[in-house]
Design goal:
- By secondary structure, the protein is α+β, with helices and mostly antiparallel strands.
- The chain contains one helix and six strands, in the order βββββαβ.
- The protein has a four-stranded mixed beta sheet with strand order 1-4-5-6, with no helix packed on it.
- A hairpin with a 5-residue loop joins β4 (27-29) and β5 (35-37).
- It is globular and about 35 Å long.
């Protein structure tokens, strides 16, 4: 993403729990202040460790939504990750 730094306003998010990274969201801002799965990437979305529990995920999503609320982002756009990369 470094090679796109002049094209996009990076706004990637790192969520930590007890000092440990539990969620990543590579993102940038649109001209309308929307948060978007990073436009410099072909696909994207929320990245969590395999085996992440629902309770931890809920907490991380609450932090993401709180961040968006505090920064007045109206929308969050996620790019779908191709199914062959997803862990089922």
């Amino acid at each position: 993403m470094e090679y796109h730094k002049n094209r996009f306003v990076d706004n990637s998010l790192v969520v930590k729990e007890n000092g440990k990274i539990v969620m990543l969201f590579p993102a940038n801002l649109s001209s309308e202040n929307d948060l978007i799965s990073h436009s410099g990437l072909t696909y994207g979305g929320i990245i969590v460790e395999k085996g992440t529990k629902v309770g931890s995920m809920k907490g991380s999503l609450k932090k993401l939504l709180g961040f968006c609320h505090n920064n007045r982002h109206n929308y969050i756009y996620f790019k779908k990750i191709p199914s062959f990369y997803a862990v089922h």
